[in-house]
Specification:
Strands 2-1-3-4 form a four-stranded parallel β-sheet. It is an alpha/beta fold and about 240 residues long. It is built from seven helices and six strands, in the order αβαβαβαβααββα. The longest helix has 24 residues. Helices cover about 40% and strands about 10% of the residues. The chain has one domain: Rossmann fold, CATH 3.40.50.10310. Bound molecules: zinc ion. Zinc ion (ZN) binds next to helix 2.
């Protein structure tokens, strides 16, 4: 069930076990993938898990903006500070509790949000009478030989499976040619880079030419399965 499409009376009548709160980012994903990639994929994983789980899970409207100042030099990127993000997500999720929705999973699609969503979930669980867990779809699965990167084979494959309409396939070759292998600039075992453009001129880490829809389907299925495990845990705890 999708919260935004439901009426308040339908929600009041429905026994809801878990609310899924998708969180993404609006940030560059190379010349071939859209700024909304992280939000699209978080929503896709949440929606699939909600359909598959045995409990009643409602997908809340997603938050498509996150903590992504590292992409600030690329046009169209929107970001907020970690403190503003934490405050917004905390208050939005805590408001669900007013209507008895006290089991929530934050379904995240952006690496830069990970410390903040984990902190928010932990603090909501500590300070409210709710159980909140953060889940980052690509962090929860084994991607095998396909490394995560950024706008690379993992995200591009997932998009080709979930939202092929938003991928500019004519620019995947160009994106791959200028891509780099590794996130960051590493000195002394430390990533000293502040912004993505320092090490990835077109914003792409990992080669999206290796992406395909079948791989994406497997990745999304695995992520939805892992999320169902988390939903079961949250529903029964
Ligand atoms: Zn991404």
């Amino acid at each position: 069930m999708e919260l935004a499409r439901a009426t308040w009376t339908a929600i009041e009548d429905q026994k809801v076990d878990v609310v899924l709160f998708p969180i993404g980012s609006t940030e560059q994903h190379g010349p071939h993938a859209p700024l909304g990639t992280d939000a699209y994929l978080a929503e896709t994983v949440a929606t699939r898990a909600a359909e598959q789980t045995d409990v009643t899970a409602v997908v809340a409207p997603g938050l498509p903006i996150g903590v992504s100042p590292e992409h600030r030099s690329f046009a169209g990127t929107i970001w907020v500070s970690a403190s503003a993000f934490r405050t917004f997500v905390t208050e939005a999720v805590a408001s669900l509790e007013a209507h008895g929705f006290d089991r929530v999973v934050l379904v995240n699609g952006h690496g830069g949000n990970m410390p903040a969503v984990r902190e928010v979930a932990e603090n909501l669980t500590r300070s409210h009478s709710m159980q909140c867990v953060s889940f980052t779809w690509f962090d929860a699965i084994d991607t095998g030989d396909v490394r995560m990167g950024h706008a690379g084979p993992v995200e591009t494959s997932a998009l080709l499976a979930a939202r092929p309409d938003v991928v500019d396939c004519d620019r995947i070759a160009e994106a791959g040619e200028a891509s780099v292998d590794r996130w960051g600039t590493w000195i002394g075992g430390t990533n000293v880079a502040v912004d993505t453009e320092e090490f990835a001129p077109n914003g792409v880490v990992g080669d999206p030419r290796l992406a395909d829809a079948n791989t994406g389907e497997q990745l999304l299925a695995a992520a939805a399965e892992r999320l169902c495990e988390v939903i079961d845990y949250v529903a029964s705890s």
